[in-house]
Amino acid sequence: MTTTKPGVDAVIIGLGWTGSIMGMELTDAGLDVLALERGEDRTKEDFLYPKPADELKYGVRLSMMQRPRQATVTIRRNQNEMAAPQRHWTTFHPGNGVGGAGAHWTGVLYRATPTELSMKRFADETFEPGFLPDNMNIQDYGVTYEELEPHYDFFEKVAGLSGQAGNVQGALIEGGNPFEGPRQNPFPLPPLPRTLTDTLFTDATRKLGWHPYPYPSANVSEAWTNPYGMQLGPCNFCGYCSNYGCLNYSKASPQTCVLDALKRRDNFSYRTQCEVTRIVKSDDGQTVKGVLYTDGDGNEIFQPARLVILAAFPINSVRLLLLSEVGKPYDPVSNTGVVGRNFTYQLTGSVDMYFKRHRFNPFINAGGSGQVIDDFSPDTFDTARHGFIGGAYIYTTQGPSGAIGGVKVPPGSPSWGSEWKANAKAHYGHHMMLGSTGSNMAYRDVYLDLDPTYRDPNGDPLLRMTYDWKENDLKMTQFMGDRMRDIVGELKPDYHTESIKRVGDHFDPSHYQSTHLTGGAIMGTDPNTSVVNRYLQHWDAHNLFVLGASAFPQNMQHNPTGTVAALTYWSAKHIRERYLENPGPLMSAQG
Amino acid sequence: MATLSLFAVQASASAGASSDPDTLARGAYLARAGDCVACHTAPDGKPFAGGLAIESPFGTIYSTNITPDTHAGIGGYTEQEFAAALRQGKRADGANLYPAMPYPSYARLTDEDVHALYVYFMHGVEPVEHQPEQTDLSFPFDQRWGITAWNWLFVDQSTFTPTPSSDAEVNRGRYLVQGLGHCGSCHTPRGLFQQEKALNEEDGSEYLSGANLNGWWAPSLRGQPADEEGAKVSGLAGWSRDDIAEYLATGRNAHSAVGGEMTSVIANSTSHLSEQDLTAIAAYLKTLPAEGSTRGNDSDATGVAKESSTEQTLTRATGLDAGARLYLDNCNACHFASGTGAPRVFPSLVGNSLVNAENPTGLIHTILAGAQLPSTPKNPERLMMPGFAWRLSNQEVAALATFVRAGWGNTGGAVSAEQVKDVRETLNEQPGYSGAPTRYGAKTSAEHATDNQTPSPSKD
Amino acid sequence: MTDQPNNWQRRTFMRQSFLTIPAISAVASVPLSAWAQDDTPPLSEYYPRFFEPQEWAFILAATDRLIPADDNGPGAIAAHVPVFIDQELAGDYGNASDWYMDGPFLSDLPAEFGYQLPHTPAAVYRLGIKATHVYCQRQYGTSFAALDKAQQITVLEALEAGEIDFNALGVADLPSQSFFAFLLQNTKEGFFADPIYGGNRHMAGWKLLGFPGARANFLEWVDQYDRPYPLGPVSLKGLQNR
Fold first, then answer.
1. Which of A445, B425, C80, C144 is deepest in the core (most CB within 10 A)?
2. In whole angstroms, what is the distance from residue B157 CA to residue B173 CA?
3. Nearest to C195 by CA among B455, B136, B389
């Protein structure tokens, strides 16, 4: 039996970064807002020292994450394979509970470059016709860097972004990233102090003629009070960052940056352990009328709402749209339909160097600590010459931080016994990593749909991911591998090992790759090729807004959170300034 | 426009439509300034319905219901009767109130403010038909007439008059501090008969000179300078007006963060006051010279002569004694080797009045139970310090507290395990903020469970 | 709602206002002593929650081979790794409480698809130890625990290489290398996880590496380049090892 609750002005599905931000914006506008969170409540009391300093619980058993038993995804590499479920998380770590991925993220806070938001236009202007493969589905975001800039700027103040600007109002600044888009303001806070790996990387890349700069970090370098009056304290490099809640109020998260301010508001409330199972369509064919959810006691509840904000993790948003039959599912054969289209991921590579002469103390690190070069971004060099479109940033960060995950032994040596033990002891603290984090283009046969076989405990189909690496992106990764080898050549370690994908390799979800799952409910200006318009408003239901990285038409080289947040503020601005006064489509199908 | 109303905020229903809204709002504001809710609300009780148990050696005093309910509350009070209760501690039936009610301070209130408060309590507060437990003291303390003599001796019945030599801002601050704020209740030492030794600055320089409250040091609000020994600063000598106003608005500033009883004062009272009033309070407090000094407190310089060897030892992390090692294992994450923490987030331990207080109860309590900053309109974040009662033994807390009280030029004395034991025994009646970890996936039903693998939670 | 008065402080404050004699204190509560060394009982007094005696004998012997005590310090036995594994298998991990364990199970998929066996970790151990026992009985005529060290290493190497056919020994859907992978991974977890989980006793694993455990603050050490960090570890419970 379904119980119907009293209606609200707006219901928000998921209380992570985007849900919290939209909660602030809509309560500011006077709306009565309810957030429904599938996972448990998490407050700063859950992160008090020393609770988070538990590698087994958080780093290995992944206690901050969505439980696969609750809902997982199935994965296959092509349409001929049968997809198999991720029975426990390996390749990515979707967050769960209040704070969502924003509570356990690393704290690397980037903007997109102007080019990355207009990739199709850039490609058309840059490459010869026929250069791009036929099955590549790249598109523009439909929103420009100039339009998003004020929202990036505001979120960076919310998060206390620490680092060094490279381009303030067009003026290039030494020590920052000269390839970034112009920002109206410098970073709110100076960079974090430099580790030994940072200094080695900086020296080596400078010698190579490149432009190293500090990671833009949302682990703050100094005490900070944000525009909501929320506060962050200086990061102490505790080493428990990615996969962990922050024990020091240093990592920007919904908990440290938004939620105590939001919870003070009388027109905001939230319920945890409430899993939304359907968005319910109205009979008018143009709107939705609320959501169905199951509460912690297993009761099914209908929550009427005038505005529905889908603010879940990207793969969960796409699945809920498919289950709710809002929007036409994507069909890869005819290349029609939209929900599930343009699913993309992140192309990563890494090098591990051993230095007998250096002592790194790898447990001393912060998620947002590190040094980076952007010299090989999509528009900073002639990628066509190397046979691809796209780019990557190359970086170092000190680590790995834990003990269970921190042991490294020479390649080919035993993995147990006395020799392993001697190697573990001798090699600990002598490793330095290099990584490349790169763009991923969208392809016609890479997409999300509902799995025909596997179901969740409610009996609903799991989401199925059909994903493989493609030649264009593998060439890009190979190129970045060569650049990392250049750095290895400068640094001259005693030995190094490489994990760099080659053309012909197939997606390997048995190892951690990245949690930057993007696309599947993408934004754009054409309802035939996007799920939401440039304001993140659903084309088929004008009172449904879909936030998050599911909106990315293809993935950029940089980490998604900054753009996810900026798009949320952008969407909120148009809801507040235009939609509330005149509910209806914010743009016509023609653009 | 029709669609706009779709999303319009619902106006909250007002309880008292019969009185003029400006007076009502002012009354509500003044009730905040007086922090009436703090004593007249029981734990989990309705606001102003009374019933908070105040323990005394003579028996338990229960606060009264001051909602406008005619039977259980003060709904039957005339404005004159209300004023008498507020200013003279006289109940409508003529009996004396116990001086747990700060009527010696409220005596200063102007007629206009008493009127606004009356309007608020009659029309702005939800009546609650709840009769709180009656105060039942044993003889001779049940004889309320004895208070008459106390009142005659210690209560100045005159209402506030501005001091001509002060400007309007200072006079406004003086009125708030001495009257509704009743700051002296905690910050002025008490005499033999539990009377505040001074009710205003003319009454004596012990006014607001700091007092010991159940072992916690309520610091001097006067211009107490740093003494010659070094870091020990009491009073507000190192705080600017803005620092004081910020502290009252948010419970935190560049120097310090609130702890103990003041936490609830900031949450329920001062954080709701206007910036103008908070600045006035600050302006007045800065006129108070150090105890025994005639010079004004116009200095903003901190008197901390910080010495660097503590920081060097902690940074080197070698040759540590037990206290220093415990500091690195438990405190350094936020307060750092420098001891100075970070402004507004992690309070500095250097020259900190809680750390340096003669009686270390407050410090020990904070180490054991942790602390939480109040959520305020300006700074909503409930920053928490974890308690370490579950992690540290009495000996360890003593070593740690002794280290902190001697480090960086601090001048607090050594702390004994016995003192820690005494404070630990009081913990069960107060909330704490524990960082005690819980293991991933531990099952409690196993037959051969080994309890020693799991840390005991501190409480609850 | 957000501003419920925090009345305990007011209560104690008012009490003090009237108090002239110190309160009579009750008998002291027993404080935890974190400074003292770990007081967990010796392994010989540990009663396994999950393992049967024969299984327990296997775990003791196998983990001792995987991380032996030697010149580089204590091994898995001194660190109580078997206790860790036992407790993990008796809890949510052993029961795969968080894992997606609905069928069908496609056990012939390439390794890239990750874990696809139909067994919980607890079942992997139960079945794997059973199959290994049958193997040792057939091959050596005795149990794994009774073999000499060199023989034990030979058996473990065979498990790791997938050379022992569990199917032929009566255990289906479990390659020997999968069993070994669990055993090795959990052994290392038990050596390096916080002592709160029963292993890493006296923080032996952390001492091997120079890992400082749950200290979790190093701001002053970020720029102390190429200097070994001098302090021993601290555990979640506050135990120290120099």
1. C80
2. 20
3. B455
- What does CATH list as the number for B21-127? 1.10.760.10
Structural contact between residues B35 and B28, judged by C-beta atoms closer than 8 angstroms? no
Query: Which of the two residues, A333 and B56, has the higher pLDDT score?
Result: A333
Domains of chain A: residue spans and CATH = 2-579 (3.50.50.60)
Per-residue tokens: A347: 């192309």
Contacts A–B by Cβ distance under 8 A: 108
CA dist B96 and A252 (Å) reads 55
Q: Which residues make beta-bridge pairs with A303?
A: A291
Neighbours, chain A (3 or more CB pairs < 8 A): B, C
Contact at CB, B434 and A260, closer than 8 angstroms: no
Question: Token match 């919310």: residue?
Answer: A158
Nearest residue in C to B312, CA atom = C220
User: pLDDT, tens digit, for every residue of B1-39?
Assistant: 333 434 443 333 333 335 789 999 999 999 999 999 999
* A386 annotated active-site: no
pLDDT, residue B138, reads: 65
Segment B369-377 shows an average pLDDT of 94
Rg of chain B on CA atoms, in Å:
24
User: Which candidate, B442, A68, A64, places its Cα nearest to that of C92?
Assistant: B442
Report the alpha-carbon angle A255-A259-A262, nearest 5: 170
Taking alpha carbons only, the member of B208, B112, B97 closest to residue B155 is B97
The 10s digit of each residue's pLDDT in B276-299 is 999 999 999 999 987 655 444 444
**Average pLDDT value over all residues in chain B:** 83
ipTM summary value: 0.96
With CB atoms and an 8 Å threshold, state whether B391 touches C238. yes
Residue, of A342 and C111, whose pLDDT is higher: A342
In this structure, are residues B153 and B195 in contact, taking their beta carbons and an 8 Å threshold?
Answer: yes
Q: Domain residues of chain B, as ranges?
A: 21-127, 168-285, 309-429
Contact B384 A57 (CB under 8 A): no
The answer to the question of residue C223 being in a domain is no
- Nearest to A5, CA basis, from A411, A325, A410, A290: A290
Going by C-alpha positions, the residue among C54, C53, C63 that lies closest to residue C153 is C63
Give residue-wise pLDDT tens across range C29-67. 333 334 335 567 889 999 999 999 999 999 999 999 999
- Please tell me the total number of residues recorded for chain C in this structure: 242
Helices (H), chain C: 7-18, 53-66, 81-90, 121-140, 149-160, 176-192, 204-209
Q: How confident is the model at residue C28 (pLDDT cuts 50, 70, 90)?
A: very low
Enter the pTM of the model: 0.92
Contact between A249 and B345 using a beta-carbon 8 Å cutoff: yes
Contacts of A406 (CB under 8 A, 6+ apart): A362, A363, A399, A400, A428, C192, C209, C211
Contact status of B10 with chain A (Cβ, < 8 Å): yes
Round to whole Å and give the CA distance between A39 and A37. Answer: 6
Count CB neighbours of C44 within 10 A: 5
Query: What is the mean pLDDT for each group of 10 consecutive residues in chain A (591 residues)?
Result: 96 98 98 97 94 97 96 96 96 96 97 97 96 95 98 98 98 98 98 98 98 98 98 97 96 98 97 98 96 96 98 98 98 96 97 98 96 97 97 96 95 97 97 98 98 97 98 98 98 98 96 96 97 98 98 98 98 98 91 47
- Which 3 state secondary structure label does DSSP give A464? strand
For the record, the structure tokens of C116 come out as 């696809």
Residue of C nearest to A457 (CA): C102
In a domain, C192, yes or no: yes
The CATH number for B309-429, chosen from 1.10.260.40, 3.40.50.2300, 3.30.390.50, 1.10.760.10, is: 1.10.760.10
The CA distance from B174 to B283, in Å, is: 9
